[in-house]
Amino acid sequence: MDKYNESLQLMNMSRVHLQEIFNDVTAEVRAWHVSTSQLLLTIALAFVAHRASTVFYRLYLHPLSRFPGPKLAAATTLYRAYYQVVRDGGHVAQATKLHEKYGPVVRIAPHTLHFRNPKAFEDMFKFNSKLTKASDFYDHLGQSDALFGLVDEVAHKERFKPVADLFSRKKALNFEKLIVNNGNRMCQLLLKKIASDKKPVNIARAYRAVALDVIQDFVFDFVPPHLRGMQDESFDTLFVNTTWDVMDWTAWCFRNFPLALTFSNQLPQSLRRILFPGEAANIESFDAIYKLVQSNVAAGPNWQRDSLLSRMAGKVTMNQLTAECMGTMFGGVINIANMLPYGAFCVSRNPPLQEELFRELESVWLDPNDPIPCYTQLSQLPVLSGVVKESLRLMHGIIVGPPRLTPAEGAEIDGHFVPPNMIVTTSSLYCHTNPNVFLEPEKFDPHRWDNNPPEMDKWLVPFSKGKRMCPGKEISIMELFIILALTFRKFELRPAETTLEDFDWKVYVSLHFKGRFFHANMTPRPGVAVAA
Ligand code: HEM
């Protein structure tokens, strides 16, 4: 609400300011005895001349003009905007097509080069890279003043300090109990649902809800029941819905046309829901998270547990704290809620693989009503490890790259010198589908990971690489192991009206499925008991 009022106030101030400028200009013009039509014509001609000279500069004189690519993309960002907004997150697919035509490096926007060779990923994200985050990408996500989007390395280091060891491997292991508790609750709710309703289960929704509750336990000190993901067996709750709904074309629209955001800010929420559904969901989440942060902070400093919020409260402003909590909450849900249903679908559509995984789990976990074996033991299981790695590989993590800015001295990327202050980008997609490393790369094949081939491990990069890689890697991998182990030890799944085409994706920050949520007929394995 504060954000809304602030924007309204800003708009009113700009309106008054514009009116004053208009009055001044009109008075000046009258003094010169120039007619309004003459003035408008002059302005229009000046505008056209300015645009034409900009296009000329970009095409023939710009530091990137020697790089190949469509002329339209070199001339205007509208080319990229078209694929992002109108073709609904289709720009990575288009960049891939452009690479087929123009080779491994393509100019996809006036100041941006897109690279395809995995070596470019290595050069951009190596630990000592001098490239920095490209701010416009993070600004439009509302993360410019949060860990995810802070460009300034010193400011980022300061912000990360209080939470650094919360993400460490040792602390991640302490977090295992919370993941197991949430996973057990998901299984109990699924059992209840199956017992009361013979229809296929929307397991994708259940996975989104469990991922949400796990990350909430990491981020907040406490979360009231009405904001949890797993309130009941419908898994149909505010954040379960908004973490899905925010991922639509509106984010790209506001990135390319910031005025659209100003316009959207003037609309009542009901109209915004129709015109800009993703942004409406964003506002709903922001307001709810802001209040949640406020109530958590008010309850401190006698925190119930060690959390991102308790570590940061008092060290940053309320707006910064809300952006941190929101960014980490969404980051912790969106990818895991892609990987779990995709991995579970690929296993369940392959009955011999499902049986093999079940037998492997049964060998270390004889009675399904006993507590799940510890993560260290699960992580030694080869079939389960292969399933987790294939889910990570084929869902790609943050598939957009994300974009980086070259330093003052320029940078060498995949053998090309890129001048200073240019944006360079690539995608984990090209590392994960490189046929020289992954034979038949499109195939979900957990056994390709038998014997842990180091070359394949090196190119598994959904969490990115280097000093700004994902600090939530350990927690995420542990979560995938535990939730998939619970699923396949306790249930047998058969896909219901879900096909591989439902997992076709478009691109926002991570990928977003175009089809229906994964539904499965779920049968409890023999001996699985519903808790009283
Ligand atoms: C499978 C799940 C996940 C994937 C694939 C993933 C992927 C990524 C990637 C690729 C980045 C780097 C983005 C960039 O370069 O701008 C990133 C950053 C980040 N991730 Fe994750 N993430 C996942 C889960 C999580 C979880 C569970 C948490 C929190 C517990 C988390 C917290 C963060 C934070 C705070 C950053 C910003 C790091 C920085 O710039 O300092 N992520 N994530």
3D structure, described in words:
The chain is of the alpha+beta class and 532 residues long. 56% of the residues lie in helices and 8% in strands. It has helices at 2-32, 36-61, 71-75, 78-86, 91-102, 118-125, 135-139, 153-160, 169-174, 176-196, 203-219, 238-245, 249-256, 258-265, 269-275, 277-299, 308-312, 318-334, 336-348, 351-364, 375-378, 382-395, 428-432, 454-458, 473-490, and strands at 105-109, 112-115, 132-133, 201-202, 404-405, 411-413, 416-418, 423-425, 491-495, 505-507, 511-513, 519-524. Strand 10 (505-507) and strand 11 (511-513) form a beta hairpin. It is globular and about 90 Å long. The model has no long low-confidence stretch (mean pLDDT 92). Bound molecules: protoporphyrin IX containing FE. Protoporphyrin IX containing FE (HEM) binds next to helix 11, helix 18, helix 19 and helix 25.
Name the overall outline.
globular
Characterize the largest beta sheet: strand count, sense, and whether it forms a barrel. Answer: 5 strands, mixed
Small-molecule binders here are: protoporphyrin IX containing FE
* Secondary structure: number of strands: 12
Roughly how many Å apart are the termini? 42 Å
Our count of helices gives 25
Radius of gyration: 25 Å
Order the strands across the largest sheet as they lie in space.
Answer: 1-2-8-5-3
What would the average pLDDT be, to the nearest integer? 92
Return residue spans where pLDDT drops below 50 for at least 5 consecutive residues: none
